[in-house]
Design brief:
CATH superfamily of the largest domain: Vaccinia Virus protein VP39
Low-confidence stretches: 18-37, 154-159
Oligomer: single chain
Structural class: alpha/beta
CATH class of the largest domain: Alpha Beta
CATH architecture of the largest domain: 3-Layer(aba) Sandwich
Number of strands: 10
CATH topology of the largest domain: Rossmann fold
Length: 368
């Protein structure tokens, strides 16, 4: 009797799933057909959202609104800009969900807008300013597609964004801050996904200002760490680690991962760095890490994995275009690319774990 009831329930579930699938396809088809012109329209005009976002962030509007609702005229007086023009920008972003506008014309922050304040954890303010002021004009992408070289090649010769950061300390510091803000968003997933319990020493290769290392050390008091990056960046990292109160268990060493990497750590992290480099340079970086590893060391690459057949990794595919413009043959990669790069560097892929953040997977390798 019980088995018959179980079979009946399971048959009913299968039938319901089938009916639901048919209904879902029908509804999706009707919605798609109705919204197609609107989708085309949004694709055409989406860049205006980014420009509006840059304007209000650059003018510190989210920081001003943190103190309470304001009209556009009140905001304009504080920011020393034209009230009518600012209102039109604010109105547009309110329609996108960044602000609320009440009947009195006062604007306030939504939970989306809160993310662009300077004083909140995982702020997007510096990243917004950096990406917009870094000259992402349409001509750069067209040049990259036409020539196969990075988009800035014609205006900068062979100088990529990384060379610009080396010679312009102010721009380099701004970049470090924007990347640090991006890392703050990723940090909770790093702590959730990776087991630091057995680890005693950790090197963050290309670790920037040290935001990732500081967060890891705070959460793992038994751990000692090292940030390894270009000398000017390492100097800024040391100051940041001191500010965060973890300098007693951390070092910041200047060097070049294209030449060598500090030896003997239990684990090596490299986060969102390989996508900046061509396959040949990535193999060089990975080979240098492999040379520094002991027989029991592990390498963890934190990076995106492109899923060519999927529509769910839209952000990853957009970031890949950024690499096409900014770097000399850098790119986001599919899983087979990582397997090939590891094999050419004396490493073996052992595990991939996807996180809740689209552009970050845990990709682990050990000496082959």
């Amino acid at each position: 009797m019980a088995s018959m009831l179980t079979r009946t329930v399971e048959r009913a579930r299968r039938e319901l799933r089938g009916h639901y699938a048919v209904l879902r396809r029908a509804v999706a088809g009707r919605i798609f057909k109705r919204s197609l012109p609107l989708t085309d329209f949004w694709l055409l005009h989406a860049s205006w959202i980014t420009r509006c976002l840059y304007v209000v962030v650059k003018l510190d509007i989210p920081d001003i609104l943190a103190k309470g609702p304001r009209t556009a005229e009140e905001l304009a007086a504080q920011a020393d800009v034209n009230g009518s023009s600012l209102y039109r920008v604010m109105r547009c972003l309110a329609a996108m969900g960044m602000f609320d506008e009440d009947r009195a014309g006062r604007f306030s922050l939504t939970h989306v807008g809160e993310s662009f304040r300077a004083d909140v954890p995982r702020s997007l303010k510096m990243w917004t300013i950096w990406r917009n002021e870094d000259d992402l004009s349409p001509e750069l992408m067209l040049k990259a597609v036409r020539t196969g070289r990075h988009g800035r090649a014609d205006q900068q010769g062979d100088e990529t964004s990384w060379k610009r950061l080396e010679v312009d300390e102010e721009t380099g510091a701004a970049f470090d801050k924007s990347m640090g803000a991006w890392t703050e968003i990723h940090l909770p997933e790093v702590l959730r996904t990776f087991d630091f319990g057995p680890v005693r020493t950790l090197v963050d290769v290309g670790g920037g200002r040290g935001v990732l290392m500081a967060g890891i050390l705070k959460a793992n008091p038994h751990l000692r760490g090292m940030v390894y990056d270009r000398p000017p960046v390492a100097a800024r990292a040391l100051r940041y680690l001191e500010e965060q109160g973890v300098a007693g268990r951390a070092e910041a060493i200047g060097g070049n991962f294209l030449e060598s990497v500090p030896a003997g750590a239990d684990v090596y992290f490299i986060k969102h760095a390989l996508h900046d480099w061509s396959d040949d340079f990535s193999i060089k970086i990975l080979s240098n890490i492999r040379a520094a590893m002991t027989s029991t060391s592990r390498l963890v690459v934190w990076d995106a994995i492109v899923k060519p057949e999927s529509y769910r990794d839209r952000l990853t595919k957009l970031l890949d275009l950024q690499q096409m413009i900014d770097t000399d043959d850098g790119r986001e990669r599919v899983q087979a690319d990582f397997e090939r790069l590891f094999a050419a560097s004396g490493l073996k892929l052992t595990r991939i774990r996807h996180t809740f953040i689209e552009d970050m997977c845990l990709i682990e390798a050990v000496p082959a």
